[in-house]
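Please review this one:
***
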Amino acid sequence: MLQIGQIKFELPVVQAALSGYSDWPMRAIAKQMGAPYTICEVMVDSFVNSLKDRAKTRHFLLVTDEDHPAGAQLMGADPEEFPAAATRLVEAGFDVIDINFGCPVKKVLGRCRGGFHLSQPEIALEIVRRVRDIVPHGTPVTLKMRRGIDDSAQSRDDFFHILEGAFDAGIAAVTIHGRTVEQRYVGPANWEFLTDVCQQFPNHTILGSGDLFTAEDCVRMIRLTGVSGVTAARGSIGNPWIFSQAAELLAGRPLPSPPSVAEQRAVIAEHFRLACTVYSEKRAVKQLRKFGMRYADWHPQGDLVRAAFISVNQIDQWQAVLQDWYSSDTPGIYPSSPGLPKPPRQIDAATDFA
C-alpha cells in the first residue's frame, strides 16, 4: 500500500510527470490501464498564473471525474510566483501539488528552475514552505528531486538539507531520481542512493525513479531499495500495460502474456480519440506520432510499424497505419530490449504555449 498524505493506493507504481508526454490523454489511458495515480506534465508557475480560458491551453488544467487522484507538477525560479500557481491548480481540481527540483535540461537550469534549486537549499525550502502554507491542509505537497547537482560532498549535503527541511515543512512524499542533474540521462541511475535515503528516512514516503523501463524493473526497485513506490516515466511511453503487469508481479503471479495486436490497436485508437477531444486533429496526429513509435515495440513487426508511424503527418495516414498493421489479432511480443526513447523534451510552458 502506497500512501501520499491521506491518499492511499493499492498499487505502488504510478504515472510520472513527463514533459511533452503526460498530457491529459496519456494520463487518462494510464488510469484506464491500471495506474492508481498520475501526474501532469510540468508547468511553469508564471505560465499557470497567466493562463486564460483559451481552447489552445485549456487542457493544461483539465481534470475529469475519472482522473482522481491526479497531481500537478510546478516548476519556477521565484518563490513568490509559486503560491498563486499552486492555488490555481488546486482550484482546477488537482489533488496533489508536486514541486519540480529535478529537471536537468540546460534551458531550465539557465533560468534557475528545476534541478538548479538543488544548488540553493534555502531558496528551495522557501518555495516548499510557501506552497505548503498556501495549499489546503488536506492537499498533499510533494517534491521531485535528483540526488544532487553532481557527485560532490557539498551536493550530497545540500540534497539532504533540502529533503530534511522539506519533510519538516510538511511535504507528504518525495520522488528521487537516481541520477545527478549533471548526469542528465547519461549512465545508470544509482539505486543504492535510494536505499540510503530510505534508511535515513524510514517513516516517510519515498518514491524511486530512474531506469524503470519494464514492470520487472519497477518491482525490482521496490524490493531492492525499500522505496514506498516508484514512478514510471520513460518506460511508460507507449507502454500503459506497465501498471497492470507490475500489479501481477507484486501479487506473486507470473508476468502476463504481452497484449495482442488487437489489444494494442484498441488502446492506440482510444489514446488517439482522447487526444482529439483536447487538440485539433493536426496536433493530435503530431502528439500521438511519438507515442506510436513506442507502441510499435510491442508489435511482432515493430521496425516496420515504427517506420510507418514516423511517416504519419495527417489523420488519414494515422488511420492507414492502424488498418495496415493492426487489423489481425496476432500475438504481441515483449520488446527484446526495453524501448529507450530519447529523454523527453522539457517544455517551457511560458514560452511554448503562452
Notes: The longest strand covers residues 70-75. Residues 191 and 231 are 14 Å apart (CA to CA). The chain has two domains: 2-256, 261-325.
